[in-house]
Amino acid sequence: MTTAPIRVGHIDLGFHAAAAREVERALEAHGHAVARSAAPHEEMFARLGRGEVDLMVSAWLPSSHQVYFDPIADQLRRLGVLYDPCCIWGVTEAVPEAEVASVADLLREPALSRMERLIQGINPGAGISRFSRAIVERYGLAAAGYRFETGTEADCFDRFERAQAEGRWIVVPLWHPHYLHARHRIRALEEPHGLLGGADEATLVVRRDAEARLGAATLDALSRLRLGNARVSELDDARRRGVSL
Element (H or E) spanning 119, and its range? Predict the structure, then answer.
């Protein structure tokens, strides 16, 4: 077994870190040392393409990350699917489904009177950020004062939790899995045009030039690793609370 650590990279978001830790455990169980790094979406795929990481946890394919994956696809092997992510526009529990069921309902009463106009996102390279900008344009939401803004995880997630606690009406651009789903009931708005990308597969990918260092037994174990959305949400929540599952 090689003494050089296996370099595990993940996108710099909490639930990706939680999933990466499970991959690390599988690597360590097969005798590998691990070095982990994180970066925003575009940069992590760039590092993968430059050979600065051996494994990436994980590429959301085919919708969210295909644009970053395709230029380096010939350098990579898809090992397995860790969970099945999907993007949503969600609302707080205070928003009645009978009155706001879909994105189109944001342009009607009572949403026009009650819904806050800021739709706070995360970093601009995230799939949900691209999808959200497209939704604002397709539905003409800006004419009613809605605006999508990118920001930090704290900008997005903390704002949702405050609004949830205070009973305010807001839209949160989010996804499954995520720690907020382990804490709250978040209702997804209907979006019939498919602008949120549909269901993806969170695919563990390895550089082909790192396969020999990993070895057949490790690759087989990683290819069979399956976490699921609920487990990743729980792991993300536990990580943030500083407890182990």
Answer: strand 118-120
Nearest to residue 218, comparing CAs of 45, 77, 36, 84?
Answer: 77
At 21, list the tokens. 């830790």
Closest among 9, 14, 86, 18 to 45, alpha carbons compared: 9
Average pLDDT over residues 218-244: 94
pLDDT value of position 244? 78
Whether residue 137 sits in one domain with residue 75: no
Name the β-bridge partners of 207: 76
C-alpha 110/C-alpha 183 separation (Å) is 27
For residues 104 and 177, membership in a common domain is answered with: yes
Q: Domain boundary at 147, 169, 188, which?
A: 188
Instruction: Give the pLDDT of residue 166.
Output: 97
Q: How far apart are CA 88 and CA 191, in angstroms?
A: 9
Q: Which residues of 34-58 are buried (b: 16+ CB within 10 A; e: fewer)?
A: bebebbbbbbbbebbbeeebbbbbb
Alpha-carbon gap, residue 101 to 97, rounded angstroms: 5
Domain CATH for 126: 3.40.190.100
Q: Kindly state the tokens that stand for 158.
A: 């903390």
**Residues 46 and 93 placed together within one structural domain of the fold:** no
Structural domain of residue 140, as residue ranges? 86-188
What's the whole-number mean pLDDT along residues 39-43? 95
Nearest to 104 by CA among 235, 207, 176, 192: 192
Token pair recorded at residue 75: 């350098």
Q: What is the distance of C-alpha 187 from the center of its chain? A: 17
